[in-house]
Amino acid sequence: MTQDTTPLLMMQNLQIEGLSEDRWTPIVKGVDVTLGKGEVLGLIGESGAGKSTIGLGAMGYVRDGCRFSGGTVHFDGIELTTADRETRRNLRSTRIAYVAQSAAASFNPAFKLIDQHTEFPVRRGLMSRKEARQDAISLYRQLQLPNPEEIGFRYPHQVSGGQLQRAMTAMAMACRPDLIIFDEPTTALDVTTQIEVLSAIREIVDQFGTSAIYITHDLAVVAQMADRITVLRHGSEVESADTASMLNAPQEDYTKSLWAVRSFTSAKKAAVSEGQTPVVSLKTITATYPGMGKPVLDDVSIDFHAGRTVAVVGESGSGKSTTARSLMGLLPPVSGGIELGGAPLAPDFRKRSKAELQSVQMIYQMADTALNPKQRIRDIIGRPMTYYRGLKGRQLTEEIRALLHSIELEPDQYINRLPSELSGGQKQRIGIARTLAAAPKLVICDEVTSALDQLVAEGILRLLDKLQRDHDLAYMFITHDISTVRAIADEVVVMQQGQIVEQGPKDQIFAPPFAPYTGLLLSSVPEMDPTWLDRVLCDREAKRA
Amino acid sequence: MQHLFRLFVQRLALGLLTLFAVSLVIFLSIELLPGDVAQQVLGQSATPENLAAFRRELGLDQPAYTRYLSWFGGFLQGDLGHSLISGLPIKELIAERMYNTFFLAGFAALIAVPLAVVLGVVAALYRDTTLDKTINVVALTAISVPEFFVGYILVWLFAVELGLFPSIANLSEDASLGDRIYRTFLPAMTLTLIVTAHMMRMTRASLINLLALPYLEMARLKGASQRRLIVIHALPNAIAPIVTVIAINLAYLIVGVVIVEVVFVYPGMGQLLVDSVAKRDFTVVQTACLLFAATYILFNLASDLISIASNPRLLHRK
Q1: Is-contact A37 A8, C-beta < 8 A?
Q2: Is residue B5 classed as helix, strand or coil in its secondary structure?
Q3: Omega before A347 cis (within 30°)?
Q4: Distance CA A180, CA A308 (A)
Q5: What is the pTM assigned to this prediction?
Q6: What does the alpha-carbon distance between residue A213 and residue A203 come to, in Å, rounded to a whole number?
């Protein structure tokens, strides 16, 4: 880390406001950030902490409907909040670059990757088009993209998420900027892909001595990437220190609570007694999408027992959600069978009776989109009660109130609200309540905590655990997050490419010796130890050799 | 490429199916119209024998489905049939008119389409400024006024007051191109005023919708200027919605010219259609209607294909 005397970037008392309901409300409330040349700063915080807004502010950019309302941003001697558009524009790409969270959404679908890469090096006159292309290819090679000669000539939709994220890092490097803002670059990726992207980013940032601001909500990730960490909450700094001391000795209570978040583990349950009939049983089901040769589910068998949680883990495209869709009758299996309490269940949901439909219910990942924004909580929860259980009038209202109680939302306060008047965690609680309103036997939880902050997610896990005990529910818990599985699962099913690669009790799956794929999955989960990434990469190198 | 070809064939088949359905609707509606051609042609004094003979001669005594099959079958083979009234081949009647209508529509489209897209881009570029609002107000005013009224205002201004262009767009068959343009200028302007607003607003709206997307924010963060952002980064992704609206408006230019043609006494399809309805010349009416429908379907087919070609996801598969 070569540290110059003058910092590259200095934000002092930065304040940014956003327009909401015709009033300017503060988003960033006076944050100081100093970044030396070649330094990597981690910005960490939960959603709404203002991380991205600060990151963009470092580029002298605010989103539409936001404005700088105070403080300064000095980039290499230039004050960006007062600089004219032209000046700010000319700094971008050449001196400050940005890597967005979702590379898939941030590449223009209409152009080939390499044309997007070379756009600004060529326009700014830094290279000829031919040189820029050559340079792009060599960057692709350094970032370990497959077929570096050819991959740039594809359109974004023809390239996988992890590869796009690396291509975007390459694009940020195109003009060899002094500073790159990484805004949650691996959040949307699978763990095994994340590890490759992290190491690629770290290597190239090291090599060119680029300064970086690394924004994430994942502590373990930031521990691998940053020299220093700043913790943010509600637009203000909580504390700031170098990575080692921040991890080992956080000062503030809020930071400590973030560090301690994965403390929850469900109580161990007695083993299933021999001969007990599962609530729902999948028997060697195979499913295909019309017009596709290869089955999306291949010979999948899982038993779901009352009062127990089966966690289905795997990366995107492994068939986790497809298994749920088949179980629900949305994608009827082509062979194999589904049993409900030992009796066969029709493969197609249209042919299932109301009572059969009632017994399997689902909680969705995005509570935001799964709740009708025009319906009040009373109707959202009341509708399945009326439909499945025939509740009406006073009895219905009482039941709704009791249910709101059990999900820890005060009925008087919440029963007449609209979803837009709830926080993310509260919306997910309503999603859970709507599912319970049907009085199901098996509940499918599809990535129910992935969109939530860690503290909130932990609350949801605790609630699900309590409800399971109260109602003797069977859970099918679909997730890509291993720590969630460790917290809540009784049995684990590991899936890859539509097949089950391993299944069994949690303790057995998560203890050595590991099956090869499970081992890879487990070792890819970032740990809070700043040397974790080096260690894993070293191990893998050694194994390959 | 193979899958593109399949898409094309699919759309084409769908178009033909639509044409068939439309032909049924046209034929049945005309069957339901009151009035008797034979009576119309031969007059009140015709004897029942004469009327019957006349009907037999024209095939009107045949059951409806036979007449439908011979009409639609003929149409598909390019035989448009004969006028009931004059007995002339419809092809001859229509050819010149069709050409005139397409000329007028093409003239209007040549001005309206580029104008609308440019205005839409400008409005998106300067969104929420006075310029944007002015463009919107003018365009909306033009679209809100009935087309005959727009026509009369233009006549009053350019023909009566300024005396620049003729108020009647009568054409002789051998008119030169320059003369044609001169004579059709006012009707073309009228049509332009009517169709521009719709296309302009769609262009503006599609562009502004895109601006919130991450890849356009990315373009800004790479340092693209507003103009580059809109024209280079956003416009290629807005082609599909814009082309769809252009197709609808082009079809309208051809199908919807009836009133404008009447206002300017222009010898196009619209005039012919109006005259033929008045004369109960049903074969001409139904053939003209079917030609309009075919045009409409053709434009939509073209816009579908352009939309597909503008989408790399469909053009370049994984």
Answers
A1: yes
A2: helix
A3: no
A4: 46
A5: 0.81
A6: 15
